[in-house]
Amino acid sequence: MVLNPNHAADFQCLGMDLPSADTTAFHITELTPYASPLGWQVLHHVHMFICDEGAPLGVKRGRQCGPLSGGSGGSGAGGACYSSLVFDRLAYWPVLLPVTAGIAVGRGTPFTRLLIATHYRMPANSTGAELAGNRFSVGLRIVLSHAPRDQRANTVMFHKIDLQVPPHSRGYEVLARLDAHLIYRMLGRSLLMADGELHLHLLHLHAHAKARHVSLTRVRNTTTTLLLSDAHYVGEGKSQRWHTLPEGTTLRSNDSLLCRCVFDNEGGNPLHGGMPTGNEDQMKDEEMCGAMLLYSPHDKYDFSPKVVGLSDATDPVFLS
Asked: What is the structure's pLDDT at 76?
């Protein structure tokens, strides 16, 4: 990739065919992000999608290249793509799926292609003119196993889209709550297949640089269970890694999930939720609060959206 000095943020997507996808069943069992030195500086996130044969091949650039750009409920340009795993700035660590489950692609699934969407932004201490034309690389090393595991795995993600943090505030709390009816809408078919209880294996807490404490709690009837808490959140590196949950962590159809984010906003502008527009000043005030989880078993006929934006004022927005 080549840095474009006219954009404070940019997007690039790479669509590719899986090898022998029509004749071979694969499970994705491991993913590792990689980048050149400049790539790690400019990377905001890299996101893998599993796609059908209608998804675009080759390299495309611009905000609209990714399946999440239009809020179309899983449809990319010309085909269907579904969110899989995401890696953020300086999160070098590989993700190892549980030995009992993998992400199914290839024969026996609609998914014959992968799409890798990369979002980058200019480093805060550099100008576009200084970096204009510099080349960098960002990508994922993906392990495809020819020996499918016992169960199929998938991911589900939720985040707050109407997040607002006032200026000159410290310790400001934002809550993103995935209620039971939304969990059932997104995971109902898999829950039915699994007799009402899914296994939760991996968890990624997601916020940006102004967050100081992020946690995820499961609410089951009258019992509250803290799944993960990061009281020293910094928005990159270890704060953005995927965490392995304790064996036996589950999600039932009547559970709710609550992501809590605490922000310090010492600037003069409010922080807002959502994706950046490419305007450098507005990007400085963009934040997120949410979580992504990998679960099993996943019903192979479950194609309901697995990414949702939550709002206090409007209906949920299903993205992919």
From this structure: 46
Find out whether 207 and 234 touch, Cβ atoms under 8 Å: no
Q: For residue 39, name the pLDDT band (cuts at 50, 70, 90).
A: confident
Residue 24 · residue 147 · CB < 8 Å? no
Q: Which two tokens mark 221? A: 């009837």
Rounded Cα distance, 40 and 130, in Å: 17
Give the pairing of strands 223-230 and 151-152.
Answer: unpaired
Give the span between the Cα atoms of 221 and 191, in whole angstroms: 17
Q: Pick the residue with more confidence: 126 or 178? A: 178
Helix (H) or strand (E) holding 255: none
Q: What is the pLDDT of residue 276?
A: 46
Q: Which amino acid is at 260?
A: R
* Domains of the chain from N-terminus onward: 9-145 (2.60.120.310), 153-318 (2.60.120.230)
Name which of 71, 102, 81 is nearest 13 in CA terms: 81
pTM, 2 dp = 0.91
What's the CA gap between 11 and 61, in Å, rounded? 6
Q: Which long-range contacts (CB under 8 A, 24 or more apart) does 267-273 make?
A: 267/167, 267/168, 268/167, 268/168, 269/167, 270/164, 270/165, 270/166, 270/167, 271/163, 271/164, 271/165, 271/210, 272/163, 272/164, 272/165, 273/159, 273/160, 273/161, 273/162, 273/163, 273/164
Distance CA(128)–CA(160), nearest Å, equals 30
DSSP label of 235: S
